UniProtKB/TrEMBL annotation:
The keyword Cytoplasm does not apply. Residues 25-287 form the Alpha-carbonic anhydrase domain. It comes from Trichoplusia ni. Belongs to the alpha-carbonic anhydrase family. GO terms for biological process: one-carbon metabolic process. Residues 1-21 form the signal peptide. InterPro entries: Alpha_CARP_X/XI, CA_dom, CA_dom_sf, Carbonic_anhydrase_a-class. The gene is LOC113500039. The keyword Signal applies. One of its GO terms (molecular function) is zinc ion binding. SMART domains: Carb_anhydrase. This is Carbonic anhydrase-related protein 10 isoform X2. It holds the Pfam family Carb_anhydrase. PROSITE patterns: ALPHA_CA_2. Keywords: Signal.
Length: 346
């Protein structure tokens, strides 16, 4: 009943706004068109409210499951061209449709070959918020998400996103700091060209693979797109190292607005969907904390151990459910810890 009248209220509100566009154009990150209402705004987005395998999530380091069968991620080295666009909800880079060389993404936890399609930029207006995924309830100033669609089963992103195993989301946590990657400037230098909703700027010859952090360590789980319609078709891969953008670049990003030049409305930042319940999903990792002798992580669940010890029920039970371990958060979040204490897995 409540939801019903709210829905009508929303409809009324829509009709007094400019309804020139489709549904897709007026959802937001706050208020009555914000994340809590995405599922009510449009029946096709009902998963946003009903789904139980939603993204983003908070990752609890002590519940990570080491999976020895996770492979390295294969990411084509070709450069791509496309368009950076302020959609009014996010900053999005979309690859050119008729690009000769598409960027394939495969390996890792992926059963299929995916084709890179777009990048979403999530960021906070302050450094203490911004990322969608959280690590042990820690939020990063930003999160860059590379989406690809399952090229083996589907024709394009719009078809794949609501089909089984349709998409991959690769998540890069963003820290403010000295950028180590000059290629990223191809994008950051265009921030001031896309200040208002609808504005766009072409970006040529972007070496996508070099935007990725220098690691093959990642966390992975099954979830949804973090924007409407929240389809539960995504395999998520979160790299175990942040990428860096400078204070100046972050400042430029925070100048972007949700509205047009005439009515700029609020800043575009703080465009993060709140974390969603995990509902007993497993978050796997290819980091074998035990083997690497990381201090304080002796209780991390480990499939090798579990397999070796299944004959001994008592030991298996003791190993099966680990509740009192607590990985040091910095092992999952900072460059320094990871590079100094963990060699690359290869
Ligand atoms: C991506 O995979 C397809 C199918 O295997 C292949 O034809 C194409 O050349 C690959 N793209 C690149 C850039 O290697
Ligand atoms: C995506 O592929 C489907 C199926 O081939 C097609 O009907 C649809 O028009 C395509 N959409 C876009 C945006 O190209
Ligand atoms: C986590 O690591 C940091 C930096 O190495 C250290 O200062 C801190 O004491 C550690 N915390 C715990 C709980 O081990």
């Amino acid at each position: 009943m409540h939801q019903c009248s709210l829905f009508i209220l929303i409809l009324l509100c829509v009709s007094v706004r400019d309804i020139s566009g489709s549904w897709e154009e007026w959802w937001t990150y706050d208020g009555i068109s914000g994340p809590g209402f995405w599922g009510l705004i449009n029946p096709q987005w009902s998963m946003c409210n009903k789904g139980r395998r939603q993204s983003p999530v908070n990752i609890e380091p002590d519940k990570l499951l080491f999976d020895p069968w996770l492979r390295d991620i294969q990411f084509d080295k070709h450069k791509v061209s496309g368009v950076l666009q302020n959609t009014g909800q996010s900053l999005v880079f979309r690859v050119e449709k008729d690009s000769k060389h598409q960027v394939n993404i495969s390996g890792g936890p992926l059963s299929y070959r995916y084709q890179f399609e777009e990048i979403y930029f999530h960021y906070g207006m302050e450094d203490n918020r911004g990322s969608e995924h959280q690590i042990d309830h820690h939020t990063f100033p930003g999160e860059i998400q590379l989406y690809g669609f399952n090229k083996e089963l589907y024709h394009n992103m719009s078809e794949a996103q609501h089909k089984s195993q349709g998409i991959v989301g690769i998540s890069l946590m963003v820290q403010v700091g000295e950028p180590t990657n000059t290629d990223f400037r191809l994008i950051t230098s265009a921030f001031n060209k896309v200040t208002y909703r609808g504005s766009s700027f072409p970006i040529k010859h972007l070496p996508l693979s070099s935007l990725l952090p220098n690691t093959q360590q990642y966390l992975t789980y099954e979830g949804s797109t973090t924007h409407p319609g929240c389809w539960e078709t995504a395999v998520w891969i979160i790299f175990n190292k942040p990428i860096y953008i400078s204070k100046q670049e972050m400042y430029a990003l925070r100048q972007l607005m949700q509205g047009s030049q005439l009515t700029p409305k609020a800043p575009l930042g703080n465009n993060a969907r709140p974390v969603q319940p995990l509902h007993h999903r497993t978050v796997r990792t290819n980091i074998n904390f035990n083997k690497q002798g990381l201090q304080g992580s002796n209780n991390c669940p480990d499939m090798y151990r579990n397999m070796h010890y299944t004959a001994n029920l008592a030991v298996a039970l003791a190993d099966d459910i680990i509740t009192d371990s607590s990985l040091n958060i910095t092992t999952v979040t900072t460059d320094k810890e990871v590079t100094t204490s963990l060699p690359e897995i290869n």
